[in-house]
Amino acid sequence: MSDKELNHKKYGINMGLYSALFMLYNLLAFNSVFFAKIYDLSSPVFTAGTFFIIWILGTLSCLILFHKITVKPLSYLFLLINAGTYYFIKTYNVSIDEEMLRNTLETNFTETADLLNLTWVLYVLILGALPCYIIYRFLDIKPLKWYKTLGCAFVLIGMFLAVIFPNLKIVAPFVRSNKPAKYLLVPVNYIGAIISYTKHYYRENHEFVPVGTDARLEEYWNNGKKNLIIFAIGETARAANFSFNGYERQTNAPLKPFKNNIINYTNATSCGTSTAVSVPCMFSKDSRADYSNGSLAYTENVLDIMQRGGYSVIWLENNSDCKSVCTRVKSLKPCSLYTDSHECLDDILIPEIGKNLSPTPQNTIIVMHQIGSHGPKYYKRYPENMAQYTPVCNTEKLNECSHEQLVNTYDNTIYYTSYILAEIIKEAEKYKQDYNVMVIYISDHGESLGENNIYLHSAPYSFAPKEQKQIPFFIWAEDETLGNLNLDKQCLIKSTENSVSHDNIFHSLLGIGGIKTKEYNQQLDLFDSCKK
After folding, report:
1. Of 2, 101, 275, 400, which one's alpha carbon is 20 to 30 angstroms from that of 425?
2. Statement: the pTM of the whole predicted model exceeds 0.85
3. Which is nearest to 271 in space by CA: 252, 288, 294?
4. Is the pLDDT of residue 1 over 90?
């Protein structure tokens, strides 16, 4: 072989093997900080398992992205960006998220240039440019037949399921409790940051969409009182663990004194399996089938319409945030107003009812967004004196607890939620001389507690287990209030056998509130068919 032929010799490698090796190099070369973090948070075995899982998913992603034309350009792009990104993570111990990307894009050239020193150049040259040259100069990457690519994909998926499924009890709570670690994982961190930044840029610059601009109030009740609707949003409460729905434990015991005035819907389903989807969806004019996640950032919802119709609207927050639902109405976060804590129990919301009512009665809706049963730290969602079931799971590491401990702890959160709802009703009763008072409770989504080895929530809706979609939903109103609102109580009780969902909330609030608008759908109003 001549020297010329040697100088141009390339080594053939198929796309499957190349994808596996490319991902292996990326994990080894650019993710030492990420795996050190995982090691600090877990164990050597868990860290090794994490490496293997990410390698599988990364290889699968490469198989999808890499084709005959795209494989080398994409390889060069990822290697160079990864190397530059890894320098900043390694040197400054920074996390790469949307906010970091936003700051970078808004920083002027001089400030950016100060960070790009000789060491950064060496990182890019040695870890990025050198592998690029090797790929360009020495590798002849051969595409796989489509059926071989499909076969490789099935093998990788099978490997993933074989590792992850038996260990969900460990993995699910770890991921949920250590979300910031993902901002150290290259290239997942900056890809996620770009996607999030693009979404927010689109929402911020999207034309605002008003809804129900024709809204007007028609007070169909004639007792001279105003309406007070207290709308409590539960967090991670599932219908199966409510004694009102047949659960053998008396998890709703604190609500028993009010049982005669509670209309409980036993077949209610959520719009999504996460707070980020379900909360905005339930207030949107769109049904679950039509709802576009994120659209409420630029689209009005039922609270905007009720406010336009003359209602005083107050949002009381004790969860992460209102997911854009309360952007244009009065909103308060008592936990940050009155304490130095980042997390409070839901009882902090109750005094806010009276504080936020007008001295002169006016039609009012108060939304109370609870922390409820949010996991995996179930043990932090109730005070110790509310622990009805023991032994409990006093850690977010669910693998360290038995199934009995896990269920006990979760049931304690439901019991405490029942106590909170009972206290809300007691508080609401104080104002029935001036108001037609109604309390509505509905959870945002359910929760998996180990059924079929699945934990927590946020599973894709199409194949999410029923435990994540079936939710508690009830209405409390005294007979006098129902009569004032022209509602037939027996009709309402009978209707609780029907299938209902978050789709009904928008239209039911408009209906009971006396708000007339073309956006109102009579068929989805739970109260309409029971009006006298």
Report:
1. 275
2. no
3. 288
4. no
